[in-house]
Queue: 2 jobs
Job 1
Amino acid sequence: MTLRSPFSALTSALTSALTRSLAIAAVLAAFTLPASAQAPYTGPLFDAHLHYNDEATARYPIADVLGRMQRSGVRAIVANSRPNDGTKALAAAREATRRAGVTVVPFVRLYRNRADYSGWHADPSIVEMVQRELAAGTEAGPYRGLGEFHLYDSANADGPTARRLMQLAEERGLAVLAHVDDVAIVKLFAHAPKAKLIWAHSGIGDVPIARVRELMQRHPTLMGELSYRPGLTVTDDRLSPAWRALLTEMPDRFLVGSDTWVNGRWDDYEALMQQARRWLGDLPPAAARRVGWENGAALFGLAAP
Ligand SMILES: [Zn+2]
């Protein structure tokens, strides 16, 4: 045994005090984690809003886009494109999509060209085009939905082609991906009350969250896709309190999407999916998995990856 000098006794007392305060600090830290310390969602993703338009196909060949999905953990996509050739090319790449572990859920786009964006709702030739596409199907199987379509004036939701296509979707169990406002959502459901309607961006144009909740409660087959939704997050990895409450309250009603409507979104694809993983990480884990994967998989009957 060695005698301890007064100095070493002091050192020892200080060390144990320091150890104690470090332990207390660690316990406190566990309860007051900074916003950036939560874990992102790591499960599979279902990208419920993906375009593979004609300006993207040459610049981002099939192997390239599948690589982006694979590196992002995206295991299924709602594929649609202007014109429908991009979707058909993805659907035809059976071996490449199988290797990448990506299931293609094809939708018929209503647009043959940019002019169709504003006039489709009253154009009978769009109904004929959709019927031809549905009859032909894709190499990945039958089309599972219609859209994305836009209605810049919600009154056009009552256009003859809009009405007919909603009824067709309801009759055939097809989902519909619609970029519209809350007024148009009500009108579209008036044509086809049981249609599976996916609300692209869940009210991008200033629709209050209370109105989104109200429409979700009123229409049990309405789903909300969350790309570009203003007010969804407050920081990169924190949902706003109101959205966190809604997604926690209705975890089976929302979906994640990339919306690759311009080529820049393809450049950012992996960053966009990482961003989704960070805010999904702000939800209870079971809710994150539903929004990230299970809701899309359930909508189209996909097996767990
Ligand atoms: Zn879109």
Job 2
Amino acid sequence: MTATVPIRLTVNGRLRALPVAAHHTLLDVLRDDLGLTGTKECCLVGECGACTVLLNGRSVDSCLVLAAEADGGTVLTVEGLAAGGRLSALQQAFLDTGAAQCGFCIPGQLVAAHALLAITPHPVRAEVEEGLAGNLCRCAGYEQIIEAVLRAAAGQAAEGGAGRRAHARPDPAATPDAEVAPQ
Ligand code: FES
Ligand code: FES
């Protein structure tokens, strides 16, 4: 029988209390227990950044954090970036620059970029490169990703396209996260 431990997490602004297997990672719990599949599972050894989330404001590889270690913490996943069902300026910039190709790395890239901009609101290119150094893109869309972050930082996300798009999606604060998960 698998030993479980009770944990409490605030995930994208919602308090979640649940028992988790002692050996399960934060990634396991986000995807399998909470249905937040925007956070991707790939290398599982901290190499690719696909599983990046913010834990207590810090960017972490959720595949390397035991869920029990995160007990009491605050987690932001890619689903939490679209407050009120509206894409953030950063997400819109990724769309406008065509940064998402296959899209697999994009949730991690977005969360890492969100963390970067929270600390360095107006980064130069080298700072963006360094901030995203832990996030690999097999489609090699690095130029568009970097451009997107720089555009968002410059407040230009609404330019050069149809503008910021409102989505008729439910308020995530009032709806289970799994129902508003983008993928
Ligand atoms: S899946 Fe966590 S770093 Fe690759
Ligand atoms: S868009 Fe395909 S891995 Fe980055």
